[in-house]
């Protein structure tokens, strides 16, 4: 086009970068297209070259990992005490969310959860005694993920706590998760005291045996099918579980009525589940954990099988790196905060619930849940955009978990760390935000991008496995 004609024609703008520039053009009614482009994440050229040279082997490994993930069949098959069923559980062990962490580095909500668990277990009579014991060396700490378990927010599991038992009927492995306490002042947000202990004891002595008896009469509950239905009903199975909880309630209620000899206790249990829209969250997490664990030892695979946060660190694990943790600092979410709270009140991102995103749910399937954007901020168009982005960094689509608003396209599944680095698109997580002080609870919710550092370290870790020519299955930690 001749320069003289430039201002005689209608301008058409392609905006690369800040979306706010396009918003200004939209307001001026100037035709514009937003290009969602990001520079690739910076990684050493030797690492990139090593990974590229092994692309065929990695692709083959990823095909195997994805096949294992997509063929998973998680079902709820029982309940039990953590000490009796969780692998490696012992009386002085407390499990927590995220990668390994010491008492000294724990955030406020996690410390509060540990104190609450010690009071619940009767190992301490006062918060002061519990804190002294927690820091004495007499209590051991370990990630839930290293014991086939998951926990929301602080993720605390102590020996006496009842847990759901989920079996991956496609591959025979199990996962475990506690029962959801509800909202407000609860242990997972670091609350402790008589009220919290009383609720946990009620869950142990009333809720647990009644649910266990009801499930025994049913035999099993197909969680994969239930989650698939919930996605069609407006859930994304992380921050919104209303449909899934309702579907679970419909299956459990008749069995509870038939198997519980005490009508009043049965009614209390039904009221508790009915009043807690997040009751299914822990099962969604356990289902995702059981699904992904089937692929946790596929040598050379670049597929992520864990994303987890402990309120201090954010970490991932790959199928092809033998249980190694790749760690970076946990970010503080940019979220929609409840009245009276701001980002200054927020704890860095926390919880094992990002296992749902790792499995293609949560933020990866947020297009299935347009109502959730009113809670986390944004619009229905944003929800569609987030999900579409995730197809760019995943290796497959789930034929069972489908998204109605995308013409029933399968959920983006199998985060490939190579694509994350190459395209500069980081996994999106639909997350709740905890107050940095223990016991205050949730102060907001939002959409969070995972930090780049763990993915860079994971690609480096994979390149080292390639250099050795064989996977090292010893567990290691790459520190932040």
Overview in brief:
This protein has 480 residues and is an alpha+beta fold. It has 16 helices and 19 strands.
Descriptive notes:
- This protein has 480 residues and is an alpha+beta fold.
- The chain folds into 3 domains: 10-35, no CATH class; 45-69 and 296-478, v583 fold; 74-286, Enterococcus faecalis V583 fold (Alpha-Beta Complex), CATH 3.90.1710.
- Helix content is 38%, strand content 20%.
- The strands form 6 sheets. The protein has a 5-stranded mixed beta sheet. A 5-stranded mixed beta sheet has the order 14-10-11-12-19, with helices on both faces. A 3-stranded antiparallel beta sheet has the order 13-18-17.
- A hairpin with a 2-residue loop joins β10 (304-310) and β11 (313-318).
- It is globular, with a radius of gyration of 23 Å.
- The N and C termini lie far apart (53 Å).
- Mean pLDDT is 91; it is low at 470-480.
Task: Write a concise keyword list for the protein shown above.
globular; five-stranded mixed sheet; 38% helix; 3 domains; single chain; v583 fold; alpha+beta; Enterococcus faecalis V583 fold; 480 residues
Strand segment tally: 19
Approximate helicity band: 25-40%
Write down the CATH topology of the largest domain.
Enterococcus faecalis V583 fold
Give the CATH H-level superfamily of the largest domain: Enterococcus faecalis V583 domain
| Binned strand content | 15-25%
Enumerate the strands of the largest sheet in spatial order, edge to edge or round the barrel: 6-8-7-3-9
CATH architecture of the largest domain: Alpha-Beta Complex
Judged by helices, strands and strand pairing, the structural class is alpha+beta
Q: Specify the number of helices.
A: 16
Largest sheet, strands/sense/barrel? 5 strands, mixed
**Euclidean distance between termini CA atoms:** 53 Å
Mean pLDDT: 91
């Amino acid at each position: 086009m001749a320069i003289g004609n430039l201002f005689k024609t209608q301008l058409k703008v392609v905006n690369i970068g800040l979306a706010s520039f396009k918003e200004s053009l939209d307001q001026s009614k100037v035709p514009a297209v937003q290009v969602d482009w990001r520079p690739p994440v910076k990684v050493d050229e030797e690492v990139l070259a090593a990974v590229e040279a092994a692309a065929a082997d990695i692709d083959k490994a990823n095909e195997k990992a994805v096949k294992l993930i997509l063929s998973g069949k998680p079902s709820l098959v029982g309940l039990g005490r953590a000490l009796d069923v969780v692998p490696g559980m012992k009386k002085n062990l407390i499990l927590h969310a995220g990668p390994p962490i010491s008492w000294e580095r724990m955030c406020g909500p996690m410390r509060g959860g540990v104190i609450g668990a010690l009071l619940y277990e009767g190992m301490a009579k006062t918060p002061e005694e519990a804190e002294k014991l927690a820091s004495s060396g007499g209590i051991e700490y370990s990630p839930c993920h290293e014991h086939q378990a998951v926990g929301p927010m602080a993720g605390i599991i102590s020996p006496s706590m009842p847990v759901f038992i989920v079996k991956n009927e496609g591959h025979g492995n199990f996962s475990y998760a506690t029962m959801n306490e509800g909202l407000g002042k609860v242990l997972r947000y670091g609350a402790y005291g008589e009220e919290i202990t009383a609720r946990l004891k009620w869950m142990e002595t009333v809720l647990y045996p009644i649910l266990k008896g009801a499930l025994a009469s049913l035999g099993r509950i197909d969680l994969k099918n239930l989650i698939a239905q919930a996605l069609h009903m407006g859930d994304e199975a992380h921050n919104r579980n209303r449909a899934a909880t309702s579907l679970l309630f419909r299956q459990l209620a008749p069995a509870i009525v038939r198997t519980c000899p005490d009508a009043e206790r049965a009614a209390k249990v039904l009221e508790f589940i009915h009043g807690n829209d997040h009751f299914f969250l822990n099962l969604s997490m356990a289902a995702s954990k059981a699904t992904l664990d089937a692929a946790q030892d596929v040598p050379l695979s670049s597929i992520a099988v864990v994303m987890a946060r402990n309120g201090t660190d954010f970490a991932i694990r790959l199928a092809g790196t033998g249980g190694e943790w790749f760690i970076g600092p946990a970010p503080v979410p940019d979220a929609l905060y409840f009245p009276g709270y701001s980002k200054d009140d927020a704890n860095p991102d926390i919880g094992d619930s990002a296992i749902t995103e790792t499995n293609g749910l949560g933020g990866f399937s947020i297009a299935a849940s347009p109502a959730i954007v009113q809670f986390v901020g944004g619009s229905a168009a944003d929800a569609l955009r987030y999900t579409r982005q995730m197809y760019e960094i995943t290796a497959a689509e789930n034929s069972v978990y489908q998204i109605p608003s995308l013409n029933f396209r399968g959920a983006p599944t199998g985060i490939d760390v190579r694509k994350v680095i190459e395209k500069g698109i980081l996994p999106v997580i639909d997350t709740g935000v905890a107050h940095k002080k223990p016991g205050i609870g949730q102060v907001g919710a939002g959409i969070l991008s995972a930090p780049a550092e763990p993915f860079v370290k994971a690609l480096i870790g994979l390149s080292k496995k390639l250099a050795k020519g064989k996977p090292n299955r010893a567990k290691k930690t790459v520190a932040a």
